[in-house]
Predict the structure.
Amino acid sequence: MKALLPVLLALSAIASGSVHAAGLSPFLASYEAWYRGRHAGDATMRVAPAGDGQWEVALGIRGRHGFAGLARVNMEQSTRFDVAGGHYRPLRQETVRKALVFTRRANGTYDWSARQAQWTGDVSKRRHAPVPLRDGDMSALLINLAIIRDARPGATLHYRFVDGGRAREHVYQVAPEPEIVEVGELSYNALRVSRVDEGRDVMIVWIADGVPTPVRILQLDDEGGDDVDLRLIEYQGAKPQ
């Protein structure tokens, strides 16, 4: 389930050949979770106001007991954030992973006064060290919200990922044209957005007109095959205006 977290969420609208989200909109979306081509569990994504001008974005995955790989793990990750200077600015993060024989929890704090982020709990020793913060730094979940805001056909998007005690540059490539994506019995005219790592796709999301969350999220394994695949079942929430 490694890099599935960077996969999260909310979406924009495709209209007149462009994608644009004027602001955040609350939603709750339900997905089927597939692992290496087999139905392995279910997932939910949500964005909701958290009071005092703050918001929360979260991804949860519930695996089926007795199924290999992904399905043995239940996971919830959330990021509390606000909007500052046009940026989605992370404030706190919590990650919980549960399996039959363990529970692991990690908490992150983004201290913008001290300009550093730091994680405690079940993270490796080297990732307990503070990470310097720059304006525009985001958690994995917030990068997905930024894609909603920024994606345009043919665009290349650059973000700095600060999450889990580490920092790295992420680059996303937006397809020049929408394509037909089939999810269950439904078909969407959706725009493909791919995260590029060393010249190859490692994460792909598809976004569709009027749907406030990705209609599909696909993480590829190290050899370029399917690994984790989230397919939208239903959603509730206001359309972006």
